[in-house]
Amino acid sequence: MSQRRVLEWQVVYQRDGRCTKRLHGGDEVLFLKTAPDLRAERDRLRWLGRHLPAPPVLGFRPGDPDLLLTRAGIGRDLTDDNHRRKPVLVVQLLAAALRRLHGIDPDTCPFGRQGPGLVVVHGDACLPNFLATGERITGYLDVGELRIDRAEVDLAAAVWSLQHNLGPGWGPPSSTPTAGPSPTRTPWSDSDSLTRVFDLIQVVAPRTEKGSQASDFPPEASWYWSA
Q1: Rounded (10°) angle between helices 152-166 and 191-202
Q2: pLDDT, position 104
Q3: CA 117 to CA 22: how far, in whole Å?
Q4: Which residue from 2, 67, 212, 218 lies 20 to 30 Å from 113 (Cα-Cα)?
């Protein structure tokens, strides 16, 4: 009879009936999630893993709550102190992660309805949900809301998370680009304008103009959020 391995564990997230535990024994690190509705995340992890790096699903048990066991991804999430010491790189990594995800052929995605101008979105594109090593994205986490949708779903969450984690002023463009999208039209309606949006958020330092509120988005960037 094989011996059971002893795994140490610690709670890394717990809120509103959802809990994530980090299990580790020897060289192996696993994550066990408990929540009422993890089937969607299981299915999306399995699908995404065929296109981009995502934690492998090792086990799933439906119930009240559901249980989802995955192997740990490689690297550290973008809120880790090692990354936050280089905030410009964090912005670049986040932009690169979303470009890769949005570049997946939406015809291959079974989650959501197809439509013109729609892409595969993460659904919760915040810094803790992306892993990186050095200057390379190495994993996509918490993909339970991954689906086909408009790119600004992710861009809005990304800019909010940059401000929340790096400080006021990080993320939104500081001025309207002369070659960028018009304020009167959706800037994500074609691949060229989407590329320009990502180029904008790659290197944007906090605002420091005298008399301005650093936490406010500049009025000229309103097109960034337009529907």
Answers
A1: 0
A2: 96
A3: 38
A4: 67
The CATH number given to 8-71 is 3.30.200.20
Q: Which CATH class is domain 76-225?
A: mainly alpha
Q: Do residues 73 and 139 lie in contact, with contact meaning Cβ atoms separated by under 8 Å? A: yes
**Contact by Cβ (8 Å): 122, 98:** yes
Beta bridge partners of 69: 32, 59
Would you list the domain boundaries of the chain? 8-71, 76-225
Supply 99's token pair: 């470009």
Q: What is the distance between the alpha carbons of residues 181 and 168, in angstroms, rounded to a whole number?
A: 24
The helix/strand count (H/E) of the chain reads as 5, 10
pLDDT values of the chain reduced to their tens digit, one per residue, 227 residues: 445 555 688 899 899 899 999 988 777 889 999 999 999 999 999 999 999 999 999 999 998 899 999 999 999 999 999 998 998 889 889 989 999 999 999 999 999 999 999 999 999 999 999 999 999 999 999 999 999 999 989 988 888 898 889 887 676 443 333 333 333 323 333 344 344 444 444 333 333 333 333 333 333 333 223 32
Integer Cα distance of 100 and 102 in angstroms: 6
Phi and psi at residue 115, to the nearest 5°: -175, 160
Q: Which residues pair with 57 in a beta bridge?
A: 70
Cα 102 from chain centre: 11
Distance separating alpha carbons of residues 127 and 81, to the nearest angstrom: 12
